[in-house]
Amino acid sequence: MSEQDFIPKSYTNSIEKGSFAWSSPSNIALVKYWGKKNDQIPENPSISFTLNNCKTITKLSFSKKEHNDDFSFEVFLDNEQKDDFKPKIQTFFKRIERYLSFLKAYHFKIETSNTFPHSSGIASSASGMSALALCLMSLEKELVNIDSTLNADEKSLDEEYFIQKASFLARLGSGSACRSLEGDLVVWGKHDSIEGSTDLYGVKYPYKVHENFKNYQDTILLVDKGEKQVSSTVGHNLMHDHPFAQERFKQAHNNLSKLSSILKKGDLDAFIALVESEALTLHAMMMTSMPYFILMKPNTLEIINKIWNYRKATDSKICFTLDAGANVHVLYPENEMKNILEFINNELVEFCQKGQYINDKIGFGAKQL
Ligand code: PMV
Predict the structure, then answer these.
(1) Looking at the domain assignment, is residue 369 inside a domain?
(2) What separation in Å is there between the alpha carbon of 364 and the centre of ligand 1?
(3) Pocket of ligand 1 contains residue 23 by CB under 6 Å
């Protein structure tokens, strides 16, 4: 698939108005995407667990307009008009117009809500952009004349194209959003030994994964619920003149190769080492860029130390990962859930803002509502 394959040929159906709704989850990267080229092309491949409970639900209502001169849309979050979301969506529409030529023909009402608390420091851009991309693809699907005589193989190719193009569009909204459509592990970015992997969209991890990773748990500790100190756009750009950038991109390729064998064997100790190293490397990149940033808070470090002590004392397979912020994702196998939730309640909750955390686990992707 190339970019050209996502340019629509022609729309044979006409549709005056209607609506579509999708729910789409957040995801947490194990090998991190940090650094991009033009058009949201990643500098290195990444892989993530799709989450189950942290989701965005978006309803897109559309009605034909008289003139096709400009984009026309309004945005609501939890039933409240949100004009401050408009610039991001305007940029998104501009980027994807080439691939969805109906965008200026309709007025859109975008109604969205998140299952996780607003301003929890959890990025809603991955779940939000993927939900919106899927709603737009549902409309495109109606506009394209669906041939009811398609056989089963052709229909499944059709579905594959739908999800690939939705992921491709989501990527143009927010890079990591392209990993939120399917589950339970998604790879984005070309990697020589992962078949089908591409810089253009996310693909389901195509190889066998050991039972140890089934229903893997992620408890998200909300350490800092404030606005992000550094937007991810600024963060990615800091990799352009970064002294360690090339080494980091190479390391991500190697880590993804290593992770493939870890996932196959179910080697939890090697998983812990790789995942924690990836998280700290992401933060090390931020600390060693110019300008430099420390995105962890003292409580982030308190939690990391507590996790390390608990692991030493109990032989637990608990580990942590981080996004580009202070919150901590605590990852652990399902069979340790009871003990680890007890540990979190007894020893980690005090480091969370207002004692808040979210229990999540591996999920299986977006759903049409
Ligand atoms: O999708 P963006 O541009 O917000 O970048 C997110 C990057 C990280 O969350 C820090 C890492 C990742 O791979 O998700």
Answers:
(1) no
(2) 19
(3) no
176 alpha carbon – ligand 1 mean position (Å): 5
Q: Which two tokens stand for residue 90?
A: 């305007």
Boundary residue ending a domain (159, 189, 219)? 189
Q: Is residue 247 part of a domain?
A: yes
Domain, as residue range, for 285? 208-363
pTM, rounded to two decimals:
0.96
Q: How far apart are CA 125 and CA 112, in angstroms?
A: 12
Give the Å distance between the CA of 26 and the centre of ligand 1: 11
Residues 6+ apart with CB under 8 A from 278: 29, 30, 31, 32, 252, 255, 321
**276 Cβ below 6 A of ligand 1:** no
| Ligand 1: residue whose CA is nearest its atom 6 | 176
Q: Is residue 356 part of a domain?
A: yes
Query: Which pLDDT tens digits describe the chain residue by residue (369 residues)?
Result: 899 999 987 888 889 999 999 999 999 999 999 999 999 999 999 999 999 999 999 999 999 998 888 999 999 999 999 999 999 999 999 999 999 999 999 999 999 999 987 766 676 799 999 999 999 999 999 998 666 667 666 666 688 999 999 999 999 999 999 999 999 999 999 999 999 999 999 999 999 999 999 999 999 999 987 777 788 889 999 999 999 999 999 999 999 999 999 999 999 999 999 999 999 999 999 999 999 999 999 999 999 999 999 999 999 999 999 999 999 999 999 999 999 999 999 999 999 999 999 999 999 999 999
**What are the backbone angles phi and psi of residue 166, rounded to the nearest 5°?**
-60, -40
Separation of alpha carbons 212 and 73, rounded Å: 45
Which of 189, 223, 251 delimits the end of a domain? 189
Q: φ, ψ for residue 214 (rounded to 5)?
A: -70, 135
